[in-house]
Design goal:
This protein is of the alpha+beta class. The chain is about 40% helix and about 20% strand. The protein has one domain. The longest helix has 15 residues. The radius of gyration is 11 Å and the shape is globular.
Length: about 60
Amino acid sequence: MKLLKANQADSLVVIIRDYEFFDGDTTEDMDEWCWQTFGYHPREGMVLTFRDPSHTNWFMLRWA
């Protein structure tokens, strides 16, 4: 698994576990997809913090 969804009540945090897969080009594509889909950039380093649990689910469906 390349991503890890944190088990929290709100499920808003995703951690990138496979740094080799999410290199420069992939993270740029991911950031652009998040901007177009959600209207904000949730990624800071290897941690993505979403504003809504449905955003987390959409992200996992697309990138996991």
